[in-house]
Design goal:
Layout: E1 13-16, E2 19-26, E3 31-37, E4 42-46, E5 51-65, E6 68-73, E7 77-80, E8 86-101, H1 105-108
Antiparallel strand pairs: 1-2, 2-3, 3-8, 4-8, 5-6, 5-7, 5-8
């Protein structure tokens, strides 16, 4: 496992229209993911068993958590407990930094290489 992660060494994935992401680092207990959104891109409502914390690095997002909506901007953050429905609408292009515990197996199963 690498202890120093350089952004330039990680390729972007394109999970949805207007969205690209980089799995920056992970082990079985923790994962760090960078997600870039274009204006109007939607992180569809979904839920998962992982705990999630996200930091708005840049841009403006309408975040929905358990039916409640809030507009967040650069510097803000949010927490999503396990199994709570959540999603995002990008109002101004930006980047979210997501942390998951445990790691999202579905994000790495196709990679086959631990970082």
């Amino acid at each position: 496992m690498n202890v120093f992660i350089e952004d330039k060494d990680i390729a972007w994935e394109h999970p949805d229209p207007g969205i690209r992401r980089k799995v920056m680092a992970y082990n079985e207990q923790l994962m760090l993911v960078k997600v870039e959104f274009q204006q109007g891109a939607v992180g569809a409502l979904h839920e998962h068993y992982h705990s999630q914390m996200s930091h708005v690095e840049s841009g403006v997002f309408e975040i929905t958590i358990d039916g409640e909506k809030k507009v967040l901007k650069a510097g803000d953050a949010y927490y999503i407990p396990p199994h709570v429905v959540h999603g995002a609408l990008c109002l101004e292009p930006g980047v979210l930094i997501d942390v998951f515990s445990p790691y999202r197996e579905d994000f790495v199963k196709r990679e086959g290489v631990e970082r």
